[in-house]
Amino acid sequence: MASSLTCTGVIWALLSFLCAGASCVGFFMPYWLLGSQLDKPVSFGTFRRCSYPVRDENLQTTIMVEQCGRYASFQAIPSPEWRICTVVTGLGCGLLLLVALTAIMGCCVSELISRTVGRVAGGIQFLGGE
Fold first, then answer.
1. How far is Cα 85 from Cα 71, in angstroms, rounded to an integer?
2. Which residues, 6 or more positions from 57, have their beta carbon under 8 angstroms from its beta carbon?
3. From the CA atom positions of the chain, what is the Rg in Å?
4. Run means of pLDDT, 10 residues per run, the chain, 130 residues
5. Cβ distance 52 to 64 under 8 Å?
6. How many CB atoms lie within 10 A of CB 6?
7. Has this prediction a pTM greater than 0.90?
8. CA distance 49 to 40
9. d(Cα 98, Cα 20) in Å, to the nearest integer?
10. Where is it localised (predicted)?
């Protein structure tokens, strides 16, 4: 297979793919903040949480749900700042994956990535936060 990338470009493509994968895994995992509540370990990320309190109306008490799950809706995310973080981080991960997959395709397809396309992809990576 012919490649439109130099040796440096191939290394860039592989590192971009690994970094985009790590960013996406970090985005989906609920372990951004760790702590304890009601003597139980809790953690949460931008849109997932583990071991969270729920009000039991029958018993008129708060119980801990010891499982991981997503928020029921976008509005259920605790604060507007956290919602913005979810959107911005998700968009960044999407941009990083787009560039990484394009770079990987450039390793296999001749004349796919030119100098200008490489510079634009680098700018998109910068915006994506990598």
1. 14
2. none
3. 20
4. 72 88 83 79 78 80 81 83 88 88 82 77 76
5. yes
6. 10
7. no
8. 13
9. 9
10. Membrane
